[in-house]
Amino acid sequence: MNSELKKYFDLNSRRVEKALRRFLPQPSIRPSIINEALRYSVFAGGKRLRPILVVAGAEVCGGNWKKVLPTACAVELIHTYSLIHDDLPAMDDDDFRRGVPTSHRVFGEDMAILAGDALLTHAFFLIARNAEIQGVNPRSVLKVIQILSENAGIKGMIGGQVADIKSDGGKWKKYCKTQYGSEKELLKFIHENKTAALIKGCLIAGAILSGGTAKKVRALAKFGNYLGLAFQVADDVLDRIGDKKKLGKKGSDFKNAKLTYPLLFGVEGSLKAARKFVEKAHEALGIFGTKAKLLHSLADFVIARDH
Fold first, then answer.
1. Taking a C-beta distance cutoff of 8 angstroms, is the pair 17, 94 a contact?
2. How big is the CA angle at 160 (ends 142 and 65), to the nearest 5 degrees?
3. What does the alpha-carbon distance between residue 273 and residue 276 come to, in Å, rounded to a whole number?
4. 150-190 pLDDT tens trace
5. How do strand 100-101 and strand 96-97 relate by DSSP bridges?
6. C-alpha 160 chain-centroid distance
7. Which of 70, 111, 162, 178 sits 20 to 30 Å CA-CA off 38?
């Protein structure tokens, strides 16, 4: 990560962190255990990539972080809820996330499920609060609610997660033939929905709340899709060959025989595909000129990271 991008990440991560501490219920509020569980997972670490993408989408369209902060925090809650549920025994059955025991290992499966549910519902409460900020069009907030609920739902993250689960344990060999035609098409569906949909939604949300034109929103949507694909391919590679201490998790994809880029194309083939996605992400930003400098840097960082 270059120094300018790091400075941008550090600054906006602190802003998001401070706001999350204010927006989340305090542990003293009854029933305290659920509020402890929420905060445990939200503040267990993480790059805060998705909220920063909301801010970046706003700024490249002439907005600023103050006008999109509730929505930026909301997408971090949506992301964290998905991780809590993803780690459950019924899903990936992981014991560690971000270097600490997963929510269900600390609070039990019942509280982990409810913590995920609570984070998702609280996320849309926060997005609605964005309408209270001066200079934000309430109609834009309604549009963002529509987009993020779709990108996090059946037509996005949930749909991708369903296909991912149905493909566990080598079942993808049979499953892909029934609905997707080929292993490559199934893998594309999983990545575009499970990962890229929410990343794309973050950029779109920031742009819409800042009055971005339809042309700019489409460009950011295209950029976000390719960025999300590159991010997930890089993640699949790190799951296979990355330093597990840096990753903060043991990496369960290989154990679960998940359908991934390394499984189909090998590590080198996967890295080549990730670089191609990044090239297409760069091309999508042409409309913004030099204003998209940080987004270009972010696209390069996605495949250069080691955790």
1. no
2. 40
3. 5
4. 999 999 999 999 998 888 777 777 776 677 878 888 999 99
5. antiparallel
6. 13
7. 162
Question: Cβ distance 223 to 284 under 8 Å?
Answer: yes
Among 92, 55, 94, smallest CA distance to 169 is for: 92
Amino acid at 206: G
- Beta-bridged to residue 193, according to DSSP, are none
Residues 6+ apart with CB under 8 A from 32: none
Q: What percent of the chain has pLDDT over 70?
A: 93
Query: Is there a contact between 234 and 305 (Cβ–Cβ < 8 Å)?
Result: yes
Q: Do 292 and 282 meet the contact criterion of CB atoms below 8 Å apart?
A: no
Angle at which helices 183-191 and 157-166 cross, to 10°:
140
pLDDT single digits (tens) 94-116: 999 988 999 999 999 999 999 99
Upstream peptide bond of 31 is cis (omega within 30 degrees of 0):
yes
> If we measure between CA atoms, which residue out of 99, 116, 98 comes closest to residue 107?
116
Q: Span 3-304: which CATH code? A: 1.10.600.10
Q: What is the mean pLDDT of each run of 10 residues along the chain (307 residues)?
A: 92 97 93 96 93 98 97 98 96 90 97 98 98 96 98 96 83 72 88 97 98 98 98 91 54 67 92 96 97 96 79
Contacts of 178 (CB under 8 A, 6+ apart): none
Question: If you search the block for the tokens 């549920």, which residue do you land on?
Answer: 85
Q: How far apart are CA 63 and CA 210, in angstroms?
A: 5
